[in-house]
Every structure is written in structure tokens, then in C-alpha cells.
């Protein structure tokens, strides 16, 4: 702990902890009619992430729950070094949080082997009680969020709950849902599209491919 601030890591899930985006993979595999136009509207931002994800899952019948859950869990791979990063954080008193736009029915099972506590995991929830899958949003935007309620799982609201004066805030991520949070934290570990944003805004970032890269840089930061 330097300068009296505890390190806290906010780590994305899809495409960061996992090797691919699980929501995209589910939609490509099951290919419900009407999903493609929704994806295009998310990309062109005529739909918020919350609206788009909710609309896409509403295309899937709950009668296929077992099939969808099985595919999501068995299709995903965990990025190398994740267990080691968790061990490093525990050893060095770094608070580790998963901040995910993913859904509970695949996020929790995939993280279960790693011993994370429920309070360390922020993600969206699902309701299979009706005819169609309904996504539930337990972590909404706060009054400071620029997306005006459109995040679904608001990463910046979680980040703001750890004040900069008390915490050295670190983000690990890869995509558009990490852009707003990257502007708030002290340090970013970035891959894929997030690198472009960090370059454009000249943010303090380090590229990574595996979590071993992240551990190596955290060690250097500790020595600095």
C-alpha cells in the first residue's frame, strides 16, 4: 500500500478473464431470428448495451435453458495466469473485483473454481421463469454515469464507490464497455479495442495478453 491507498483491481470478464465474449458466442451459436439487427444497433449506438443485451436474450426461449447454459460454460476458456493473479492479489492485499457485463448463469459457474466470494463479483442476472429469457440489472448506473442508465452493469458506478483518495484504482479490460471506466482509474491493463482508446486519450496503460503479463507489471509497480 503506497501513499496510504489500497490497490483495487476492476477486472472485466468477457474477452478478458475469458478468451472470448460469451454473449457474442451464445448469439452466434444459437442464432435467434432478429439478433443481427440488434447487434448492429448496439454497434451504431442507437440501442444502449442494456437495451440490446436484454432484447437479444428475449429472443431465446427458456425451454432451451439447459442447452444454453451448457454451451456457455463449456465453450469458454480462462485466460492463462488468472489463478496466479488472484493468488498474487491475496498475498499483496490487493482487492480484486470482477466487473462484468456478462450474465450470472455463465459468470458464476466459470468463476466457481477460483474461490472468489460473491461480493467480489458484479454482473447481470437472469430470470428463466417465463417463456423467454429475461435479463435483470442489479447494478444500475448512478447519477454520475454519462450513459444515463444504459450500461446494464455500470462499471463506472462501481469504480466511483472506491474513492480515488482512498484507493489506487486499476482496470483490466478489452472493449467498449471498459472505455468509460478506463478514464477514471490510475492504471489500465488493456488489450484489443481498449488499447486504441488508451492510445487516443494518452491514458496510463500497459498492454497484456495473459495475466502473467499483469502480474509482472504489478511487481514492477510495487518496486517503483
TrEMBL record:
Pathway it works in: Amino-acid biosynthesis; L-methionine biosynthesis via salvage pathway; L-methionine from S-methyl-5-thio-alpha-D-ribose 1-phosphate: step 4/6
Pfam family, one: HAD
Keyword Hydrolase annotated: yes
Record has Membrane as a keyword: no
Enzyme class: hydrolase
EC number: 3.1.3.87
Keywords on record: Amino-acid biosynthesis, Hydrolase, Methionine biosynthesis
InterPro entries cross-referenced by the UniProt entry: HAD-like_hydrolase_phosphatase, HAD-like_sf, HAD-SF_hydro_IB_MtnX, HAD_hydro_PyrdxlP_Pase-like, HAD_sf
Stored CDD domains: HAD_Pase
Catalytic reaction annotation: 2-hydroxy-5-methylsulfanyl-3-oxopent-1-enyl phosphate + H2O = 1,2-dihydroxy-5-(methylsulfanyl)pent-1-en-3-one + phosphate
Domain of life of the organism encoding this protein: Bacteria
Task of the protein: Dephosphorylates 2-hydroxy-3-keto-5-methylthiopentenyl-1-phosphate (HK-MTPenyl-1-P) yielding 1,2-dihydroxy-3-keto-5-methylthiopentene (DHK-MTPene).
Record-stated family: Belongs to the HAD-like hydrolase superfamily. MtnX family.
The protein's name: 2-hydroxy-3-keto-5-methylthiopentenyl-1-phosphate phosphatase
Amino acid at each position: 500500500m503506497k501513499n496510504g491507498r489500497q490497490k483495487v483491481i476492476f477486472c472485466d470478464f468477457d474477452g478478458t478473464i475469458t478468451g472470448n465474449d460469451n454473449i457474442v458466442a451464445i448469439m452466434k451459436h444459437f442464432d435467434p431470428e432478429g439478433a443481427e439487427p440488434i447487434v448492429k444497433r448496439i454497434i451504431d449506438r442507437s440501442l444502449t448495451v442494456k437495451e440490446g443485451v436484454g432484447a437479444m436474450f428475449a429472443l431465446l426461449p427458456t425451454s432451451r435453458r439447459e442447452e444454453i447454459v451448457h454451451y456457455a460454460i463449456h465453450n469458454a476458456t480462462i485466460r492463462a495466469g488468472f489463478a496466479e493473479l488472484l493468488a498474487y492479489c491475496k498475498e499483496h492485499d490487493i482487492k480484486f473485483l470482477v466487473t462484468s457485463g456478462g450474465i450470472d448463469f455463465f459468470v458464476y459457474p466459470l468463476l466457481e473454481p477460483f474461490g472468489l466470494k460473491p461480493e467480489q463479483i458484479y454482473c447481470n442476472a437472469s430470470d428463466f421463469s417465463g417463456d423467454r429469457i429475461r435479463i435483470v440489472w442489479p447494478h444500475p448506473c448512478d447519477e454520475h454515469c454519462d450513459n444515463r442508465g444504459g450500461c446494464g452493469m455500470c462499471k463506472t458506478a462501481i469504480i466511483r464507490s472506491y474513492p480515488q483518495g482512498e484507493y489506487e484504482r486499476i482496470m483490466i479490460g478489452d472493449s467498449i464497455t471498459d472505455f468509460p471506466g478506463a478514464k477514471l482509474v490510475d492504471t489500465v491493463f488493456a488489450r484489443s479495442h481498449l488499447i486504441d482508446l488508451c492510445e487516443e486519450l494518452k491514458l496510463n496503460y500497459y498492454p497484456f495478453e495473459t495475466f502473467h503479463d499483469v502480474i509482472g507489471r504489478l511487481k514492477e509497480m510495487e518496486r517503483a
